[in-house]
Amino acid sequence: MPVKRVLSDVLVPALAAVGLEEAPRFQVVQMTDLLERQSPELNVDTPSLLLGLGAEQATTAQRVLLNAYPPAHSVSLVRIRGGSGERVWEGALDQLAEGVVAHGGLDGTAAYALFLPALPYPGSVTALEGVMAALLSPNGCPWDREQTHLSLRTYLLEETYEVLDALDQEDMAKLSEELGDLLLQIVFHAQIAVRDGEFRLAEVVHHIVSKLIRRHPHVFGEVTVHDADEVTRNWERLKAQERARAGQAATNPFAGISLAFPALSRAQELQRRGERFGFKWPDRASAWAKFEEEMREWQAAATPAEAQWELGDVLATLANVARWDGLDAESALREANNRFTQRLTQLLAQCEAEGVNLVDLPMEDALVRWRATA
Q1: pLDDT tens column, 83-101
Q2: Most buried residue among 22, 54, 182, 322 by CB atoms closer than 10 A?
């Protein structure tokens, strides 16, 4: 349809129906363009008008839009006919398909548009970029302006562990908040890079989008896979090709495993890499036997230096046994630490309430109290 006709016959009456004639800014997208993607390319901080909704598209449009908008977000169905627009249904986004049915379907003699107001709060990465740009501007925050990539390292690590803590607690509200704090670190680094003429957030996104598409030819290309193991094999082969193009030694099985990884996590990843070269116990029983052997050697250590050496072997072989059981050793230890701190805190509070000094109790009595906190 010619642009002028869209403006006169569809867009103008649709805007009038939802009160956007005087809006300072809004987005207009053809529904066919939206449905070509799994997630909408819309700025959630700006009202949107989606033109050309068909009856058979409502369910798909609802699914795609739920990737960016909450289920309860209010949307409106607009009918355009005879040069005028009318809002014929309004409801929650997750009720869109049902709303179209409740409306009696879509009349083939009219055009339809879907209106989405902006989110009631800033929700786009662009909004976060704007805040960071203001903080790092000449008139921004003195503390933020002093930061560098190196000075932010500690905060990046802290926020990562707070995300892990939220995951350990299975607290989705906390996870949402902590992911925001982690995202701040990414945008902070990107904005420092803009300030210093190094790169921009768009380049960061470009690198990861290109990598994901390149490493998923079974989704974005013509490759066929039959199971997750085949996906993993393809992934590793593609990574090896990328390392070769980057000039990294193809024979280095540990390329890309950061020295900054927590030790247990790094041990399990090193062991995973070693398996590709045949370094794998034939079964769990063999891995467990090796762990027991290392335990005996630790017990027999004659000096602190020998004990330190053997303890390292014990932890490494224990991490390997955990892999046989599909366990993440780092997460398991972190969860155990959390349990210990919670139980000891509870025990101390109980003792204080009873006027008991835990330090003065015989070990047997302390253990009875400890077990009662489980």
Answers
A1: 788 888 899 999 999 888 8
A2: 322
